[in-house]
Amino acid sequence: MTTLPPERPEPVEPGPPAAAILAAARLRQAAESFGADAERYDRARPSYPTAMVDRIVAESPGRDVVDAGCGTGISARLFQAAGCRVLGVDPDPRMAGLARGSGLEVEVAKFEDWDAAGRTFDAVIAGQAWHWVNMAAGAAKAAAVLRPGGRLAVFWNAFDPPAELSEAFGAVYQRVVPDSPMAAGFWSRPASAQYLAMCDTAGDGMRQTGAFGDPQTWRFDWSRPYTRAQWLDQVPTFGGHGLLPPKVQAELLIGIGEAVDAVGGAFTMDYATLVATAARS
Questions:
Q1: How far is CA 115 from CA 26, 50, 59, 61, 210, in A?
Q2: When you count CB atoms within 10 A of the terminal residue's CB, does the N or C end of the chain come out lower?
Q3: pTM, full prediction
Q4: Is 50 exceeded by the pLDDT of residue 37?
């Protein structure tokens, strides 16, 4: 199985101040790139399984939910449809604006810095976003706004293309963007490995607060079909892809499109949604 690398790059080794500044600048650029094409992000990004939403709601004491890093509202709308009252928090006003357009209430702030103004909630969720948060500080903020028994649940989608496409996609990345983390053996890695590691890190952040019970990791397997056009629509939304020079991105999309054409122009993607979660003591 294979998965996207986390949209936040792996931590760099400590180095001189200039290196740290450059690394921080790259992180900011990657984070800010999502809002540059918020409509595509909302349209193309995968959803999450209903079973996950139902379990989080069932294991929370009520239905007042904060969606940390809500983006365009992909996960928030699912919880809203399940009968929850959802408040989104996101640092990007472009993403927040699109979410508001679909009827969601959103406040613009980094979750760690967000002022809850004394409000408390039954659940804090984060879909494909918690790796942008300082996980210890984020867990402390969640603990501060959760009611007793309230649940923190952060989740990511890992994907597994058919084996022949994994090999073909890897060859395209190696040819077009050889310096990309998706070029050096990436496509032969287990799908869930990177996000399971992030679930462990998220769980460590929950433990550090001393405010949560033992963290758990939940897994939900599902799949969805993609046409060539649908997959190519999603690729530019992957972390860092929006920062590629236009000619490089175009060449990458041509190569990926040819790989999908070679398997008949459509395929089924297997997903594993991984959840790191704990209840407020």
A1: 27, 30, 26, 22, 21
A2: C
A3: 0.88
A4: yes
3-state secondary structure 54-70: HHHHHCCCCCEEEEECC
Residue 90 tokens read as 């996101």
- Does position 237 have pLDDT exceeding 90, yes or no? yes
Tokens 């986390």 sit on residue: 6
What is the residue whose two structure tokens read 């809203």? 80
Pairing of strands 216-227, 266-279: antiparallel
Kindly report, residue by residue over 173-193, the tens digit of the pLDDT: 999 999 888 887 778 887 788
Q: For the chain, where are the alpha helices, taking DSSP H only?
A: 17-33, 38-44, 50-58, 74-81, 93-101, 135-145, 163-176, 193-209, 228-234, 246-262
Question: Residue 233 burial by CB count (10 A; 0-12/13-18/19+): exposed, middle or buried?
Answer: middle
